[in-house]
Amino acid sequence: MNLSIRRLDLRLKEKFKISHSEFDSIAQLLVIIADKEITAYGEIIPVEFFGEPFDKAHEQAVKVLSVYGKEISGIQTVSDVRQLVQKLSGQKYFNCIKCGFEMAMLDYLGKANKKMLWELLELKEPQKRKTPFTMPIMEGRSWKSRIPEDASLIKIKLGGLTDKDYLEYVKQDKSRDFFLDVNQGWTIDRLEEYQEYLNMDNVLMLEEPVKPDKKSGLAPVKKFLAKTPLFLDESVKSGSSAVGFAGYIDGVNIKITKFGGLLQSLEDAGMLKDKNLKLMLGCFLESSLSIAYAYSVSGLFDFIDLDGATFLKEEPFKGIKIHNGEIVMDCRGYGIGVEYE
């Protein structure tokens, strides 16, 4: 068996901006597990915002191959994968590293056993799901014409100079539903200023409007939300980190790579459901490999937000698509189910 890592540079169709970051390309790593009959893939997605610089992630990936390569070559069950990821957790590897290697190993096991990932994990087959069209902060650029006519659900990125225009659009367009995502880009004063827009019937959630205060947490935020559910994203990287906010939030955005892999995400999702929290399955800017990986477990989530690959200029994987605002697998390959082009 041959194990390798390849740099994956993904260019975007155009600049993608949110309140705390801006991208025109993303640097990732591809984990490849190959033998004579099977080639399996995993995607390592370092996120600088979460303290995962690319160069350090690359160093860690090389170290994993050196230290754990023999164990990776010997995996035979999902339990083997879980145990190896737990070892990586004990050695303080980045969550993106754990996720990328886990992804490749589960893809390999699925292909070796001629099972799709959801079958390998003994889950129900994922069905078509509505996923939002994401509108980034488009300062100085036209934006209304970019919204697809068939998009019934839109995620609006706030925390920039376009806020008032975007919120007025939400107020006027009663034919669509909206997720509002501020990515910690507001202050409490700004939240109060926009309060009237946040409680409209077509606003399904408000995501991470401010960075939680260390003393008061999110208590000041909830008083401005009469009925709109409050979700967290940036503030939580695990189920345990979300539990402390449980009295003030309604839901959590679980991103597989942020939580350290699919197996850990499923475990944390169960814990958060026990706290009566709603769950959204989200993504970063990433290829269809990671999107399909997440989609395999989408039936366990209340909402999904998996359009991250649609912003790529060149897509290295094929097999999953978004049509009429719904995401669906476009092929029936084993493992994760997508093909490397």
Please explain how this structure is put together:
This protein is 31% helix and 24% strand. With 341 residues, the chain is α/β, with parallel strands linked by helices. It folds into 2 domains: 2-114, Enolase-like, domain 1 (2-Layer Sandwich), CATH 3.30.390; 129-340, Enolase-like C-terminal domain (TIM Barrel, Alpha-Beta Barrel). Strand 1 (2-17) and strand 2 (22-34) form a beta hairpin. It is globular. The model has no long low-confidence stretch (mean pLDDT 95).
Task: Provide a compact summary of the structure.
The chain is 31% helix and 24% strand.
Write the layout of secondary structure elements.
Blueprint: E1 2-17, E2 22-34, E3 39-44, H1 54-73, H2 78-90, H3 95-112, H4 117-120, E4 129-130, E5 133-135, E6 153-157, H5 163-172, E7 177-181, H6 188-193, H7 195-198, E8 203-207, H8 219-222, E9 230-232, H9 239-243, E10 251-255, H10 262-274, E11 278-282, H11 288-295, E12 303-304, E13 317-318, E14 320-323, E15 326-329, E16 339-340
Parallel strand pairs: 5-6, 6-7, 7-8, 8-9, 9-10, 10-11, 11-12
Antiparallel strand pairs: 1-2, 2-3, 4-15, 13-16, 14-15
Helix pairs in contact: 2-3
Keywords: Isomerase, Metal-binding
Family: Belongs to the mandelate racemase/muconate lactonizing enzyme family.
GO molecular function, one term: isomerase activity
